[in-house]
Structures are given as structure tokens and as C-alpha cells.
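Bench notes, afternoon.
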Amino acid sequence: MDGDEKKKAENNSGEEIENSAGGENTNSGENEQLDFIMKSGGVISKKDGETIHCLTIVGQIEGHYALGEGQKATKYEHIIPLLVSIEQSDEIDGLLLVLNTMGGDVEAGLAIAEMVAGMSKPTVSLVLGGGHSIGVPLAVSAKKSFIVPSATMTIHPVRMSGTIIGVPQTYYYFERMQDRIIRFITDHSGVSEEKFRELLLRTDQIATDVGSLIDGREAVEIGLIDAAGSLSQALQELRRQVEEKRGGAPAPV
């Protein structure tokens, strides 16, 4: 190896060491954040001394059984440990839960909703597109919920596919499951049980099923969702909760 080749090799070696240490590789931080978003469906945002974890619930909520290929899914075994981590972290000040879901596994969705409702950290939910079926408990699980006017929410009774044994015990199970969901929704929102059951059993809105399809404006009117708004309003409310938790003067809503 002559002098020029030796010098070139030393320069390349130095560049590799510097890049591996993150010295001049300006894309490493962006790549790590993108990788985090792809794996967890969330992103951590920092501004003015506040750190917010934004978590998305999209597609169908996958529970005890894996969904087929080609279906967008949110896996509850990923979300639940992540919620524990957010609750335990001293660096995270609040959680923004963004929903665009068609529903899915009832017990998995209800489990996630209970986890969010049980958090001591400031929490805000935002429904974009749709918060259907078991997505309704998820939407109301936060300390304050928002919905964009164009979003919709489908309210219908518990359904099950596959082989069902037609005995009284099966119908009792369905009734108890439905009661659990209704109790959670009415406990964490302003809608009355009477109104929610009325929407649940309507026969004039869904062609192949009973239930109701309501938009953002109707969801707020009946008290199911706290307020109409989009991202800026949701973040403003979350910052207000963070300031209140810190003991400072609450920011104006």
C-alpha cells in the first residue's frame, strides 16, 4: 500500500468511527425517531419544558387472535406495556391518544381503555376519522376527549363471529359484556345510560345491524365526547392539565 492509499484508508476509518459515534451523522436522530414511530405507533414531542407522548390507535384492535395479512391492526400486547412505561416515566408529562379505529377485540379494547382511565398523568383523546365500536370506550377513557366535526362513531351491541352455542348462558354472557362496556362509557363521559342504550338498539340507521352512526357534532351534543376540536385544541388542553398537575396556574382553555 503506497502513501496515498494508506492516507485514504485512515481517513475512511476515521469517518466510520465518527459516524458510529453520532458525531456528524445528522440523520441518525431522525432515523431513530422514525423507527420508534413505526414500531410503537407513537412519538415523543418536547416543547417549552413539556414532554408529550402521542400514541395512535388505528385500524382494528387485535386481541387474543391474530388478524390476517393486509389488515391494519393495533396490538394490545404492545400498547399496554407502553402505557405502563409512560405512567412510570419521569420524563413524560402527558399522553395524547389519537384514534382512528374501526373497533376490534372487545376485551382487548376495554383493557386498553381501563389502562388509560387509570393513569395519573394528564391524558387527552382526539378522534379523527372514526372511533367505532370498542373505539368508543377508548375515546372517553382520557381525562378530556375531543372529536373533529367530520369524524364518526358507530355504536352497536356486542357481536361475535364463529360458532356460537345457542343456550341461555351464551346470551347471559353477551348481556354481561354489554353492561361492562355501557358502565365504562357512562362513567367516563356525560352521556346517560338511557340515551346510550337508545342509540345502541336503533333499527333505522345500519342496514345489516342495529345501532347508530353519529358524527362529531352529535357526539358532543349527547355528552359522549367532551368537546369538538382538532389537534391544536387537544394539545392546548393537555398543556393546561400538565400545568395544573405541576401546581401552577392552569392555562386558559
